[in-house]
Amino acid sequence: MNKLIAFSLIGLLAGCSALKQLGVPVQSGSPSRPVQQAPRAAGKVDQLLAEANRLADRVKAGELSRTAAADQLNAARLRIAGANPVDNDNFAVYRQLTVERDAGRIDSDAFRSRLELHLREWMRRWPRYSPKPADPAFSNFLLKLYGLPPLGY
After folding, report:
1. Is residue 144 a contact partner of residue 45, using CB atoms and an 8 Å limit?
2. Distance CA 25, CA 21 (A)
3. What is the CA radius of gyration of the chain?
4. What pLDDT is recorded for position 25?
5. What pLDDT score does 22 carry?
6. Is 112 helix (H, G, I), strand (E, B) or coil?
7. Residue 123 φ/ψ, nearest 5 degrees
8. Is the pTM of this model over 0.85?
């Protein structure tokens, strides 16, 4: 059964809180077209999604700023998936956009479009990128939030 969960991009932490506030649809359960993904990688993406949702709730409740939530999501990212150049780059852009959003320099639409553009650039670069990280879980988490296919599959 396919479900789309609309997130209210409340300023998600490095990805989720901002995406929740934007109303980005997120698939839960089975996607409409099966995506081949290693079980371990899917587990990490799901763990990051759960942490992002938890932090987004704290942002919505006024307990955390978007930037503070992004920093906590980064700590979870490093704990769950570890660091790699692709995820590090995508997190850096996510955090930079989150800081701009918190400061009122961009709105949720600009946040979404700029992050999606960056993710699409990674999708374009991925086939020629070397050496590829074994599991770009954070990048795949963001791609999932945007309804885009994961890297490497």
Report:
1. yes
2. 11
3. 14
4. 36
5. 36
6. helix
7. -60, -40
8. no
131 vs 133: CA distance, rounded Å: 6
Region of 58 (left: φ > 0; alpha: ψ -120 to 50; beta: rest) is alpha
Closest CA to 137 of 70, 86, 75, 72: 86
Q: Do residues 142 and 119 lie in contact, with contact meaning Cβ atoms separated by under 8 Å? A: yes
Q: Which amino acid is at 129?
A: Y
97 residue type, one letter: L
What pLDDT, in 10s, does the model give residues 61-70? 999 999 999 9
Q: Are 66 and 13 in contact (CB under 8 A)?
A: yes
What's the pLDDT tens digit per position in 50-62? 999 999 999 999 9
Other Cβ atoms less than 10 A from the Cβ of 109: the count is 10
Specify the length of the chain in residues. 153
Residues 6+ apart with CB under 8 A from 97: 18, 106, 111, 114, 115
Cα–Cα distance between 67 and 100 in angstroms, integer? 9
Q: What is the DSSP letter of 38?
A: -
- Per DSSP, 149 falls in state P
Per DSSP, helices labelled H in the chain are: 16-21, 39-60, 66-80, 85-102, 108-125, 137-145
